[in-house]
């Protein structure tokens, strides 16, 4: 017991523990300083916290943050023990295994047995953030679908990715669990995003009414204040089992306004359809031998 106590009060053990604490404090205050600087630059540019910034600028910020967090994790676990051990080997009458290596071994055992879940979550989260930053798959502010949840990305953290849904719910998804998940991004860092609106007509509709409906939908999209006029508008026609489906594709200028844009276009067309007596339809789907209305 006395030998073990002597090992633990080794000067290099104290240096190692002190450096770990200092690194954590420096990382915390550095991140806080960086966030303040970013907020200051955004205010000078007249940008609010919820406004999308230039994708390249945001990716640079995300890469820096991910690199700093990876450095904070690797420095005390890998770099510091090796550096201190090399220094200790040059000192006379000192056996590194009696202190520094023992402390590092105990620290590694703690991570293995007591901190396994936390360590895995942290390592997986940092790795995911780093890969995401350099692969440019998605960023804060994007509208994405992850593990069945759709919403705006509020934060890509070490432990959780936070989404804000259209119903203003906050969804927290473990970052380390996203490695095997498919990612659907509506805007991929861009301000505009594609909007798809389906319309269903009765099979009793004639060619003239169908052309009128197509022209009305086209006009409804062009007349909306939420449309991005620089992007193309497309309309596709297809024959379904119990109806005729017309699919309208266009781009909304701000991805966050997609629900308002859909409401604008749908409301304008329904008014036109009622006035012109255009027969609409409710499509049905067959599931497990039972008929139900399509969403």
UniProtKB/TrEMBL annotation:
<keyword id="KW-0812">Transmembrane</keyword>
<dbReference type="GO" id="GO:0016020">
    <property type="term" value="C:membrane"/>
</dbReference>
<dbReference type="InterPro" id="IPR023408">
    <property type="entry name" value="MscS_beta-dom_sf"/>
</dbReference>
<feature type="transmembrane region" description="Helical">
    <location>
        <begin position="100"/>
        <end position="119"/>
    </location>
</feature>
<keyword id="KW-0472">Membrane</keyword>
<dbReference type="GO" id="GO:0008381">
    <property type="term" value="F:mechanosensitive monoatomic ion channel activity"/>
</dbReference>
<keyword id="KW-1133">Transmembrane helix</keyword>
<feature type="domain" description="Mechanosensitive ion channel MscS">
    <location>
        <begin position="131"/>
        <end position="182"/>
    </location>
</feature>
<feature type="transmembrane region" description="Helical">
    <location>
        <begin position="12"/>
        <end position="33"/>
    </location>
</feature>
<protein>
    <submittedName>
        <fullName>Small-conductance mechanosensitive channel</fullName>
    </submittedName>
</protein>
<dbReference type="Pfam" id="PF00924">
    <property type="entry name" value="MS_channel_2nd"/>
</dbReference>
<feature type="transmembrane region" description="Helical">
    <location>
        <begin position="70"/>
        <end position="88"/>
    </location>
</feature>
<dbReference type="InterPro" id="IPR010920">
    <property type="entry name" value="LSM_dom_sf"/>
</dbReference>
<dbReference type="InterPro" id="IPR006685">
    <property type="entry name" value="MscS_channel_2nd"/>
</dbReference>
